[in-house]
Inverse folding.
């Protein structure tokens, strides 16, 4: 793997870096609003908030790894020669 390929791989990973925190914070916001509107006690709402954010952080990490896996691009340079002709193997 040359330097350009490594740079491209890092760029693709940076695009999905924010999926887990965005999912976790969105779930935390929604959970906080629901707990506030429903009138839960502070300790009970904090436990619910903690576990919901933990679950969504794990889900976000799993989704990020799946997206990173499918975003890998195949190197087609092995199928072409110097003149741009298709090489049969």
């Amino acid at each position: 793997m040359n330097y350009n390929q490594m740079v491209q791989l890092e760029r693709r990973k940076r695009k999905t870096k924010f999926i887990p925190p965005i999912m976790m914070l969105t779930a935390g916001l929604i959970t906080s609003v629901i707990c506030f509107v429903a009138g839960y006690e502070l300790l009970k709402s904090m436990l619910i908030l903690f576990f919901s954010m933990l679950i969504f952080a794990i889900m976000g990490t799993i989704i990020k790894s799946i997206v990173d896996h499918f975003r890998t691009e195949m190197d087609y340079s092995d199928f072409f020669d110097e003149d741009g002709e298709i090489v049969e193997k």
